[in-house]
Design goal:
Length: about 575
């Protein structure tokens, strides 16, 4: 890698406001003055852009989609990032001087009231930009992003140039400061480690944002490390960590207790890690809960695994087909009841669906102990409600009467669907969050659950994690048939939410456009739209045997076909 001092680049300004007219007006004014302008509506999207683009100045209106400019200032200034010192110019509309004073106290660099005087405003912007350029283009300063393998070259450059100053490094939420005196490292700190261990930690990060601030370094320090020789020791430890990390490429892996109990004389951190990991916490959850850096935690867990104190948990659907077969063998009721239910379902009327209010409530027997049941679950209450309501409605229209809906708790409901041939099917929807006692009651040995319809509202990282937790809880209590539903509420342009693999921005992609190319609106990186069924299997940790389907939960025909498919498949499984 050839390291160069940052060269002068285009002067970029970010305009933040919920008001579209304000954003467009500011864009026109600033672009006419020769600046490159980005616009965003919220604090969240502004922070995403700042992480990816070299912004010289932020101009923010008072009103934002997710707060005010006070929220923006607080978020930016309190963030442990290389861009948290970006200048902020606030535009207010309150003539009360207290707002201006409060903005400066919060960390704003300048403030103006509406309506703006164009010449004065641009003069103030120019002054701020000039100061930023002077700081950034100091011949002994640098600011850049490097990948893991390029970082040693930065250290060696600073050593060869006998630099004096502070190198600030960040990787997402992790921060480090490394002080150089005459090209040697005299101080190195991260949140949880120092000295050579801190260097090893930084070198283990997948990438770094770096900012070197030239400064005279005075005084005595506890360490005085020669960069080249120290790097050799650090790189050896980093390579060992890479080997360990290779065993756990997925930070969502969970654990259970191992064969060997943890020794009583283990330290406090080891006991806490063991206790949380044994109860099913993932790496990500451990990292967010325990005050220890990521490298040390992963290494500690690996040691606990190697010594038999922990072992990786089996994925919820690891033995799906075998478990399903065993479950169906115990349900002698299915071969007797399913044929008549299937016959009724396949002739259900979905072409002329009336509102339930126009139908009379049936006086069906409330006993459901000998009736097959379909459970509806998922991470999104509204989607669960829609699917439940659609199935309830078409069953009621076919029979001519609506079955009563009962509920035992918030966001739970159940009903007994009656059909023309005296067959029946219990339909029950579960809340996204349910306690284990209630779940065990629902899925007791006496419950004749034909299948679970699980609706995953999205496939981004955060939602997938929530879905996996619910699926694991369901799977721990039920070993039968699952159908994973990916909802397509708009049949014309069905969309699914995923993460940009480069900046983690949530993207809405067209399901039917898999294989096509698009660009992330935040980082502008070209992305290939994935095949969503394959993507769902990866995101939810599913085996190929677990069926995933796209349906519109509002569409009566698609819902009827799903029930028919699930019940017919059960009969085929029982027959084999």
């Amino acid at each position: 890698m050839t390291l160069k001092v940052q060269e002068q680049t285009e002067e970029k300004i970010l305009v933040v406001a919920s008001d579209n007219d304000f954003r467009n007006g500011m864009r026109g004014m600033l672009e006419s003055a020769g600046y490159s302008v980005f616009t965003r509506q919220s604090v969240e999207r502004s922070m995403q852009l700042l992480e990816l683009s070299d912004i010289f100045l932020v101009v923010t209106d008072y009103e934002l989609e997710d707060g005010t400019f006070f929220d923006f200032i607080k978020t930016l200034r309190n963030s442990n990032t290389f861009y948290n010192e970006t200048p902020i110019y606030c535009i207010g509309n309150d003539k009360n001087p207290d707002e201006c004073i409060s903005a400066f106290d919060a960390g704003a660099d300048d403030y103006s009231l509406k309506p703006l005087n164009k010449k004065i405003f641009l003069a103030r912007v120019k002054k701020i930009i000039t100061a930023v350029k002077k700081l950034r283009y100091n011949p002994v300063s640098l600011e850049l992003r490097v990948d893991q393998g390029e970082l040693p070259g930065v250290f060696q450059f600073l050593e060869a140039e006998t630099k004096n100053g502070i190198l600030k490094a960040s990787c997402q939420k992790d921060m480090a400061e490394i002080t150089f005196k005459s090209g040697k490292i005299v101080k190195a700190e991260t949140e949880y480690c120092a000295a050579q261990d801190a260097l090893t930690e930084v070198l283990s990060w997948p990438f770094c944002h770096l900012k070197f601030i030239d400064d005279s370094i005075e005084g005595e320090f506890d360490i005085n490390l020669n960069v080249s020789s120290t790097l050799m020791d650090c790189v050896f430890e980093v390579d060992e960590f890479k080997e360990t990390l290779g065993k756990y490429p997925d930070m969502e892996v969970s654990f259970v207790g191992g064969e060997n109990p943890l020794p009583k004389n283990s330290n406090r951190i080891a006991k806490k890690v063991h206790r949380m990991a044994s109860s099913g916490s993932t790496f990500d959850e451990l990292i967010n809960s325990i005050k220890i850096n990521r490298r040390h935690l992963i290494t500690l867990v690996d040691q606990l695994v190697s010594m038999g104190h922990l072992q990786q948990a089996v994925l919820p659907f690891e033995n799906y087909l075998a478990d399903q077969k065993n479950y169906l063998q115990d349900k002698n009721i299915f071969p007797k009841t399913l044929p008549s239910i299937i016959d009724a379902v396949e002739t259900m009327n979905y072409t002329d669906v009336k509102e339930l209010e126009t139908l009379t409530i049936s006086n069906s027997d409330s006993d459901t102990s000998a009736t097959p049941k379909i459970l509806i679950a998922g991470d999104h209450t509204e989607l669960n409600d829609i699917l439940f309501s659609t199935i309830h409605k078409i069953a009621a229209n076919s029979y001519g009467n609506k079955s009563p809906v009962k509920s035992s708790r918030t966001n739970e409901a159940h009903t007994k669907l009656e059909f023309f041939n005296n067959s029946s099917l219990v339909l029950q929807k579960l809340p996204p969050k349910v306690d284990s006692i209630f779940l065990k009651t629902v899925m007791s040995q006496e419950a004749n659950i034909a299948s679970i319809f699980f609706i995953a509202s999205a496939l981004d990282k955060e939602t997938s994690r929530a879905c996996r937790k619910i699926l694991k809880q369901l799977r721990d209590n039920y070993k039968g048939t699952f159908y994973i539903i990916l909802p397509k509420l708009d049949s014309e342009e069905p969309e699914m939410r995923i993460d940009c693999p480069y900046c983690s921005h949530k993207l809405s992609v067209d399901i039917d456009m898999s294989g096509s190319l698009g660009n992330c609106p935040i980082c502008n990186t070209e992305i290939t739209i994935p095949e969503c069924l394959d993507y769902s299997a990866d995101s939810l940790k599913l085996l190929p045997e677990v069926p995933c389907v796209f349906i519109n939960p509002i569409d009566p025909e698609e819902c009827r076909d799903l029930i028919s498919l699930s019940l017919n498949s059960l009969l085929e499984e029982i027959a084999t």
